[in-house]
Design goal:
alpha+beta; two-stranded antiparallel ribbon; 1 helix; 2 strands
């Protein structure tokens, strides 16, 4: 996960992590509970295409 420098509203440089869509789903559906079952189905699904 690369970090890119960005300027905030009061002109400070911050490091912002860039997360892919599958990476975002992996973070959202993860659990720290010991009894949780690992699930990787959403992160491995292709993103839907949007026709314009």
């Amino acid at each position: 996960m690369p970090d890119i420098p960005i300027q905030d509203t009061i002109d400070r440089t911050q490091q912002a992590p860039i997360v892919s869509e599958p990476g975002m789903y992996e973070v959202v559906v993860r659990s720290d509970k010991s009894e949780a079952v690992p699930y990787h189905g959403i992160a491995n699904m292709p993103s839907p295409m949007v026709a314009v």
